Automatic annotation (TrEMBL):
InterPro entries documented for this protein: CellSynth/LPSAsmb/PSIAsmb (IPR051012), TPR-like_helical_dom_sf (IPR011990), TPR_rpt (IPR019734)
Pfam families, sorted: TPR_16, TPR_20
Protein name: Heat shock (Putative periplasmic) protein YciM
Source organism per UniProt: Vulgatibacter incomptus
Gene3D superfamilies linked to this entry: Tetratricopeptide repeat domain
Record's keyword terms, sorted: Repeat, Stress response, TPR repeat
TPR repeats: 112-145
Domain of life: Bacteria
PANTHER family hit by this protein: LIPOPOLYSACCHARIDE ASSEMBLY PROTEIN B, TPR REPEAT-CONTAINING PROTEIN PA4667
Amino acid sequence: MDPLVANLLWAALLGIALGAIVGVLVAASGKRRGEGGDPSGPVPLTSLRYVLEGDGDDGALVLSRLPSGDPEALAAAFGLGELFRRKGDLGRAVRIHEAILAVPGLSAEWRAGATFELGLDFRRLGMFARAMEAFEKVVDADPFHAEALRELRELCEEVGDWEGATRHQERLEGLRGAQPALSAHLHAGHARKLLSERCLDDAARVVALGEAADPRSADVRVAGAELHLARGEGAEAVAALSEALELRPEILSAIVPLLEGAFLAQDRYPALGDFLGERLEANPDDASLRLALARHLRRRRLLDEAAGQLRRILEADPQNGEARLELGELLLEGGPADGLETELRALLKGPGNTPRPFACGGCGMELTQFFFRCPRCYGWDTIGRIRPPKAAEHDIPRLASATGGADDE
């Protein structure tokens, strides 16, 4: 859609929504005056004007005079705050929700709702500590507030507090039922953090928890392979990575560095070529796998064989930027130019396009490699391969985990 048209449509939508909310607030103001309130001016409308003009203090002061028992006016204020958050005007959203919390005699239900909305505002602003504080207040007031628990879990994931994320997930499962695939991902993340801190025994314990949560978790297998590598156990690492590939073949290009480390740990680096070659025979159209093999062959100075693999990639996709750059590296190292005239001309014209063979089934983000968790929408197990061009462009598969999908949408 043309950006100008989109902006006009958004402005029209905002105007309609504001008109509806103002109508509710007018009604609330008239109702208040009819009940013997202050006739000097419509309290909600005055507050709305202050908030829209950015005067949060005066807006909060005036909104604090809103009758706490008027659900229509409160609902209108909530709607306005959410509208501004969706629009991206987060400062106004915060001021509105803080002003609601200043209403005297506000019921526990309305207070919890406003606090939750305020937490969402802070999260969008990147103020994670304040967001967590808000959601924790909600959970303290209502231990069964599943959405607040979910927000806390996701915030813990974002800041790398995997132990906290696991704790909140356990409480959430008590309300919604078991989610073994998601729990396994959290254990895998926790294990990696422990590995980064060189706490190998604790990492092994957490990997075992992940395996118990979901015996078919490829993520836990990969974390286990990282543990084996930290212990210098190359053969065990290869075995764990092989099991992960059996469960999720599409992760191969993402774990090539781990495979390289595992084979190097055994002084069997050349065997990695056989490992990749066997899988390429089963998946001959996997350009990322073929590129990984080409890079491996170049590192072993098998330049003719590497050039052959790159030629295969560029014949299928002349715009593959990664293959073009790899070809340039190969030529700089003295690789053969014979038979690559077409590819060389293409390289001189530019770097080409970076292939994005993966996409998130949740938010649609296209990616150069596989991730268990989408880096944009943070959904677990939502990333899969984009289907070939003959499929509909919107037909991106939602990748289910071995246990039916980890995300709890």
